[in-house]
Amino acid sequence: MTDTAGKTPAPATPSRLKEVWESDFVWSFRHSPVAIVALVVVLILVLSALFAPLIAPHNPFDPATLNLMNGFTPPGEPNAFTQEVFLLGTDDQGRDVFSTILYGLRISLFVGAAAVFLAMVLGVILGLVAAYLGGWVETIIMRVADVQLTFPAILVAMLIFGIAKGFTPPEYRNEMAIWVLIVAIALSDWVQFARVVRGAALVEKNREYVQAARMIGRSGPAIMMRHILPNILSPVLVIATISLALAIIAEATLSFLGVGAPPTQPSLGTLIRIGQGYLFSGEWWILFFPAVTLLALALSVNLLGDWLRDALNPKLR
Question: Which family is annotated (predicted)?
Answer without folding.
Answer: Belongs to the binding-protein-dependent transport system permease family.
